[in-house]
Design a protein that fits this description.
The protein is mainly α. It has 8 helices and no strands. Helix 2 packs parallel to helix 4 (50-87), helix 3 (32-44) crosses helix 7 (137-162) and helix 4 (50-87) packs across helix 7. It is elongated and about 60 Å long. Its main location: membrane. It is a multi-pass membrane protein. This is VTT domain-containing protein. The chain crosses the membrane at residues 12-30, 50-71, 140-163, 175-193.
């Protein structure tokens, strides 16, 4: 993976960074914690400009958020509520749960998008609830851009500072992303079991 990423950047330059960061949001197995440090190392070698590297990383990341945002927007709260009321029982999910989640995102969505764009494992997934809650496009793009710029700058700066050891960034951040996804999975299972018990008590 590292050789492919480096080869694409060597052949396409800044456009390669932009393309890779777009793909990273659509196909999470391509990690930003490998792309941006590698680009930062290229800047340290003098092959690229660090500021332009960060700009391309940010732009690619923001563009990459749009497909899932539009999927969420097309699905919409009303359709999701109707689906949950009709088919969600086996997931212990109801339309009321969807509305509560949507209300929470309406209140805290900007902060969720801003900080979530800097959390490995969920950074691309936040586009779905943002679209479903019909977050205004301008607001979504603004907070996505700020969070993405901070994340891109952090990763590229680390790669610039570490030089040939830029791959250490992925070695540290990669396990962190897997831990975060694991915790989210545990939380989802715990929520499912709790709701299942509540349903069983309600039916007694």
């Amino acid at each position: 993976m590292a050789e492919w990423v480096q080869g694409l950047m060597d052949s396409m330059g800044y456009v390669g960074i932009l393309l890779l960061m777009v793909l990273e949001n659509v196909f999470p197995p391509i990690p930003s914690e490998l792309i941006m440090p590698s680009a930062g190392f290229a800047a340290a070698r003098g092959d690229m400009n660090l500021a332009v590297v960060i700009l391309m990383g940010t732009l690619g990341s923001v563009i990459g958020t749009l497909p899932l945002y539009y999927v969420g927007r097309a699905f919409g709260e009303d359709r999701l509520v109707a689906w949950a009321d009709k088919h969600g029982k086996w997931l212990t999910l109801s339309g009321k749960d969807i509305k509560k989640a949507d209300d929470w995102f309406d209140r805290h969505g900007s902060k969720a998008v801003l900080f979530g764009r800097m959390v490995p494992g969920i950074r691309s997934l936040l586009s779905l609830p943002a679209g479903m809650s019909e977050m205004p496009m301008g607001t979504f793009l603004l907070f996505s851009a700020i969070g993405s710029a901070l994340w891109s700058a952090l990763l590229a700066g680390a790669g610039f500072a570490l030089g040939e050891n830029y791959d250490r960034v992925e070695q540290y951040v990669g396990p962190a992303s897997r831990i975060i996804l694991g915790l989210l999975a545990v939380a989802a299972v715990a929520w499912f079991l709790r709701r299942k018990r509540e349903q069983e008590h309600a039916e007694v």
